[in-house]
Write a structure and sequence with these properties.
0% strand, disordered C terminus
Amino acid sequence: MAKRLTYYILAGLVLGLIVGWVLNASIDDGSPEATARLKTIADYLGIVTTIFLRLIKMIIAPLVLSTLIVGIAHMGDGSALGRVGLKALGWFVTASLLSLTLGMVLVNLLEPGLNLGLVPPPATAESGVDRTGFDLAKLITHIVPQSIFEALATNEILPIVVFAIFFGVAIAKIGAPAQPLVRAAEALATVTLKVTDFVMRFAPIAVFAAVARALAEQGPRVIGQLGYFMLCVYIGLALLWLLLIGLGFLIVGGRMGQLLRHIREPIILAFSTASSEAAFPRTLEGLERAGVPNRIASFVLPLGYSFNLDGSMMYMTFASLFIAQAYGMDLSIGTQVAMLLTLMITSKGIAGVPRASLVVVAATLAQFNIPEAGLLLILAVDHFLDMGRSATNVLGNAVASTVVARWEGELRAAGVGELEAREAAGPTG
């Protein structure tokens, strides 16, 4: 079923490209009426994608909570949890620095912001990106939930992770009396993954609608206008893929091939829907089938969604320096390094903010006296770039989970995941 679903998603992607292009070409004549008509069609197509993403989001909170509690409870003690956490954070920081450095080097070599023939907006203009969600003090305090039910209701992954850590460690300390809670969490995770199977049957339709909507509304012209910038970003993402996969091969060897085979479906899904959240349940299943123990995958993967956004880091580097180049601003290497370190720090834990990458870029530009209205240059193609960075985020977190499992000496033989094995075995105890 999984292999067929991958083909169906690819078919939906191709069909969406064709239908979106045909709609734009047949309707768009440059008149306000045609633009309004395309906007109406895009809104209707957007209903399908929105419903699918809402179905995915209704799964994420219970899945993260249940699998993380089970994983931490099975670790047995706080020292194991701290060891795995430190290894994961070490990889996250390394991968972030790699993404930022590679992005900075490529922007300076390729110079996508020079000689574009575009007129930058006035320095006093607003970008239209809402930065109210970006407040460093609020972001730090928001990590600790004041109510787990509030965090579950709003799908805030990082607060859920914090609660699950406390809850899982408490279960591990209590031992046998708390085992009913562990079995309940295991049952919840199994049921949630079964719900995921049902929801994923709609993925090809959602992918078709998402791609058709983007191309029908924006049209191929906008891709041509900023084509070189998009090409540079995707060159950077491709090189980042090669580096991440190469590092993975150095650490886990040939098992990287098995991992890529098991996560190809969530990568395609993230790319097609421009949402790494949509791929979370399938990524977790793919990691287990690739041999990553549930207790490690269910801990590292949620953390990665807040701290290891490799594709987003690459994109934010390109966007920030591209805008500076478009304004003709010559930034010293020291200033660029300071900007990238600012991006790395301010991007952590901001996954719950709408259009998070643009929000972080807007806040960072203001700190370095670069007009944030420059974001208007790339807003039109942000969706198409979001596709690439979402897929890269999925790959980066999958590699991180596999590497941590290898460092822990717990990378199993690839096969059926633990949750599926428990489901097949039926209830125990």
